Amino acid sequence: MKYDYLIVGSGLFGATVAYRAKKLGKKVLVIDKRNHIGGNVYTENIEGINVHKYGAHIFHTDYNEVWDFVNSFVEFNRYTNSPIARINNEVYNLPFNMNTFSKIWSDVFTPEDALKHINEERKEITGEPKNLEEQAISLVGRTIYEKLIKGYTEKQWNKDCKELPAFIIKRLPVRLIYDNNYFNDKYQGIPVGGYTNLVEKMLNDIEVKLNTNYFDNIDYCKSIAKKIIYTGPLDEYFNYSLGKLEWRSLVFDTKILNIENYQGNAVVNYTGHEVEYTRVIEHKHFENTSSSKTVITYEYPSDYKNGMERYYTVNDDKNNELADKYRKLASKEKNVLFGGRLAEYKYYDMDDVIKKALELEL
Ligand code: FAD
Ligand code: UDP
């Protein structure tokens, strides 16, 4: 066999495993069905600005080993994610913190003032929250739920908040300090030169074949490598034999504008139903790029349909049960290892994916 490892997918999982295998002296081939490397973290330089082609990606982690690993390839800047929320003609700071509370309630100046409102509004939920709406109200009260959560979440998932699981909202921080940093992690930043630069360095000197779909020639792929690392969709690998897993997709509408600064922030969330998009990204602010132009992207949530990309797993009970059945099949596949967001059907961040890939037994 020509290769020790055939790696299906050049996203962060595939690239991390490829790098490790190469370092162990193994012969590695990476294939990707897209015409570029990097999977969903791919950035493309447009008008001198690194554009996050598959949505805003902010690297954040608590894992020292992951931070050291990515920093061994490229430098990271000190970007701190502090999104702005817009609803109708109002503007608020995210995540929910003293800046948000003092704007929502004009008599809030101190944490005690904020807690007075939040605790009063929380009273309507008694017992353990049963769905996302109850979870949100018990977290920050109904006023904030209705302005900053309900519309955004319903657009994102195309479901009523009463029908969504509570865990989706649990990752949003609530802070009684004046701090707009969206993440709690120890480390945060954007790779200088964009994510493509990072993945290019990880794949340095590794053979990569683009525009190559594993499913177009499975037998050939299996015949050239001792082991396969598969990072594509879990259900697709098994030809949907147990049924289809549900995914959410996105439609991106990118525009180049002849102005220097469109919205004054990299990420602006539109939290109401008055517009259909959930976010507008202004890419130059991730790296503080100076340019007389700017590139912005409107992000429209969408049901997943054939031919689209799968972006978000839908980890409700029904899909988790089906994914478990597929995982059992996967564990029986000889000489094939499954990893990454698509192949594990897990709502992983970038650092989770790299951590799993660093821990994979090769
Ligand atoms: P992917 O990046 O999806 O890579 C899989 C690769 O496999 C793709 O290149 C695909 O083309 C290829 N492939 C699939 N099937 C085949 C096949 N049959 N043959 C050949 N190739 C195939 N994480 C964060 O930490 N911070 C963020 O701010 C953040 N923002 C996000 C925003 C959005 C809109 C999305 C969707 C995700 C975000 N994430 C974020 C998560 C992050 O994108 C993922 O954790 C990470 O990119 C997953 O890497 P992966 O290698 O598992 O998968
Ligand atoms: N969310 C919200 N309002 C916002 C941003 C997020 O209600 O302005 C909710 C929404 O339910 C979303 C979840 O928080 O699905 C997680 O959002 P986050 O931006 O952290 O995750 P991502 O979409 O980047 O994976």
In short:
This protein has 14 helices and 16 strands. It has 362 residues and is of the alpha/beta class. The chain is globular.
Characterization of the model:
- The chain has 362 residues and is of the alpha/beta class.
- The chain has 2 domains: 182 residues, Rossmann fold (3-Layer(aba) Sandwich); 75 residues, no CATH class.
- Helix content is 33%, strand content 21%.
- It is built from 14 helices and 16 strands.
- The strands form 4 sheets. Strands 7-6-12-13-14-11-15 form a 7-stranded mixed β-sheet. Strands 9-2-1-10-16 form a 5-stranded parallel β-sheet. A two-stranded antiparallel sheet has the order 3-4.
- β1, α1 and β2 form a beta-alpha-beta unit.
- α4 packs antiparallel against α5.
- The longest helix is centred in the middle third of the chain and has 16 residues.
- It is globular and about 70 Å long.
- The mean pLDDT is 97.
- The structure holds flavin-adenine dinucleotide and uridine-5'-diphosphate (UDP).
- Flavin-adenine dinucleotide (FAD) binds next to α1, α13 and α14.
Helix content: 25-40%
Whole-number mean pLDDT = 97
Question: Structural class, judged by helices and strands?
Answer: alpha/beta
N- to C-terminal distance: 17 Å
Architecture of the largest domain, according to CATH? 3-Layer(aba) Sandwich
Order of helices and strands: EHEEEEHEEHHHHHEHEHEHEEEHEEHEHH
CATH class of the largest domain: Alpha Beta
Query: What compounds are bound to the protein?
Result: flavin-adenine dinucleotide, uridine-5'-diphosphate
Task: Describe the global form.
Answer: globular
Instruction: Count structural domains.
Output: 2
Rounded radius of gyration (Å): 22 Å
The number of helical runs is: 14
> Which homologous superfamily in CATH is the superfamily of the largest domain?
NAD(P)-binding Rossmann-like Domain
Output the strand order for the largest sheet. 7-6-12-13-14-11-15
User: The CATH topology of the largest domain is what?
Assistant: Rossmann fold
What portion of the residues fall into strands of 2 or more residues?
Answer: 15-25%
Got a strand count? 16
Low-confidence stretches: none
